[in-house]
Amino acid sequence: MSAPGVVFRARALARRYRMGEVEVRALAGVDLDIGAGELAVVAGPSGSGKSTLLHLLGGLDVADRGSVEFEGRDLAALPERERTLVRRRRLGFVFQAFHLVPVLSALENVEWPLRIDGVPAAECRRRAAEALAQVGLAERTAHRPDRLSGGERQRVAIARALVHRPAAVLADEPTGNLDSATAAAVVGLMESLRRELGTTFVLATHDPALVERAGRRIRLSDGRVVEDTGAGAAP
């Protein structure tokens, strides 16, 4: 059972994949605690295991060996339906490619997770508008993705990840498609939201500038943790 204040606990986490005749070791025995309210960056070169680690922490994949606890529950031990509800209600996800629905407005994109969870339409609209205001897009709610800049689209994606008030947000290369100034602004936004809402953020990146801004740095190499600047809940 995870200690109080620990959102994610990974123990002896290992994952291998087969690519044709070749077996690829993505993770090889990762031990990790991430506390409530932390902004932690998982760094390392391509192929080091960053995305695999995020997928396992978020219950998008299941380890070959070891365990992941989220809010004290072993994700792999949950039935698939319950694991889906955990992802839908307690976790938020942000991806490099944004994954916005092109025919929907910013507001409708942010509403979508609430709608599929059965939240009444008026409440969906209110909470989506509030989330967009939190990321500085109160005046852009009616715009579709093709009328938004890259940075604005990523902020819509962050609002969508936060609209159901998750305990944690997992972001895989969230600045990969952004210029350096916009990337810095997006990371600054996540840091502000962490302080304001107490949300835990875990970001996977190979961007050195993003790594330098992190309060907690977890560096992977060949599927192992080779550096961890510290653990525990943020102040």
The count of β-strands is 10
Number of domains: 1
| Poorly predicted tracts of residues | none
Structural class from helices and strands? alpha/beta
Helix content: 25-40%
CATH architecture assignment: 3-Layer(aba) Sandwich
- H-E order: EEEHEEHEHHHEHEHEE
Query: Roughly how many Å is the radius of gyration?
Result: 17 Å
In spatial order, strands of the major sheet run 6-7-8-3-9-10
Mean pLDDT: 89
| Shape category | globular
How would a crystallographer describe the biggest sheet?
6 strands, mixed
CATH T-level topology: Rossmann fold
What is the CATH top level name?
Alpha Beta
Walk me through the topology.
Elements: E1 6-19, E2 22-35, E3 39-43, H1 50-57, E4 65-70, E5 73-74, H2 80-90, E6 91-95, H3 106-116, H4 121-134, H5 150-162, E7 168-172, H6 180-197, E8 200-205, H7 208-213, E9 216-221, E10 224-228
Parallel strand pairs: 3-8, 3-9, 6-7, 7-8
Antiparallel strand pairs: 1-2, 1-4, 4-5, 9-10
Helix pairs in contact: 3-4, 3-5, 4-5, 5-6
Q: What does this molecule look like?
A:
The mean pLDDT is 89. The longest helix has 18 residues, at 180-197. Helix content is 34%, strand content 29%. It has one domain: 3-Layer(aba) Sandwich (Rossmann fold), CATH 3.40.50.300. It is globular, with a radius of gyration of 17 Å. With 235 residues, the chain is of the alpha/beta class. The chain starts with 5 loop residues before the first strand and ends in a 7-residue tail after the last strand. The protein is built from 7 helices and 10 strands. Strands 6-7-8-3-9-10 form a 6-stranded mixed sheet, sandwiched between helices. Strands 2-1-4-5 form a 4-stranded antiparallel sheet. Helix 3 (106-116) crosses helix 4 (121-134) and helix 4 packs across helix 5 (150-162).
